[in-house]
Amino acid sequence: MRSWQIGDVHSLGFRTDLMLRRMAGSDIEERTGYLVVRTPTNPGFWWGNFVLFADPPTKTDGLAVFAAEFPEAAHVAVGVDSTDGILGDVLLDLGLTAEVNSVLTAQHLRAPSPGLAVRALSSDDDWTQAIELRLACYYETPTPDERQFNELQVVEQRRLCEDGHGTWFGAFIHGRMRSGAGLFRDDDLARFQSVETHPDFRRQGLASAVLGHAARREPSARTLVIVADPDDHAIQLYHALGFAQAEYQIQLYRAPGS
After folding, report:
1. N or C: fewer beta carbons within 10 Å in the chain?
2. What is the pTM of this model?
3. Which structural domain, as residue segments, surrounds residue 162?
4. Which of 78, 73, 202, 185 is nearest to 136 (CA)?
5. Domain CATH code at residue 206
6. Which residues of 70-92 are buried (b: 16+ CB within 10 A; e: fewer)?
């Protein structure tokens, strides 16, 4: 394995992931040929506790390295510093579930639609609504573990905002948060996080309004970054706002118990 450091990462998706992990206080350790990211405050967060390889690892090296670095982990999470999205036989041989996401960028976004109440979250009630929105987006009936995991994520995101790293925005209808997203910035890069709209309020322009409003609050950010599933309908929304495909991000994982 070759010598490798944080500053050597090419992938814009992982560069901004590492930016967020650093802001959150995660431990990022440099090894020969890979980085180790640890988030002790949320051990169930796969992409807060993962190994990022400079080059595609063999099955033996990839799984052995993760097991050695995270001996107590129930999951496996491995990233590769690639931008072309090509898995290849070496990565497929790992036997992990592979996700190849689109990394999109823009210099500015279409102006938000007028008339929608979009604002930054500030109060305890705002952030409680952010948790409930997230649960409504992903679960019919969350288990206690799923609720705790999401609460820990939102607590971290609130702390990042209060520490001045970014802002979380919500679109409110009759006083209830129905869509939201965060935008975090470091130097000339600004990364969107967790674009979410309540299932009962989709296709009403809420997410577009949130993203456009957030972008206007960071006019000096040279590059806006968002990462999305290329097969998700939301990617059409991002293109309509002004985002363009820049590269791909490869993440491989094994869920606990599988």
Report:
1. C
2. 0.92
3. 117-221
4. 202
5. 3.40.630.30
6. beebebbbbbbbbbeeebeeebe
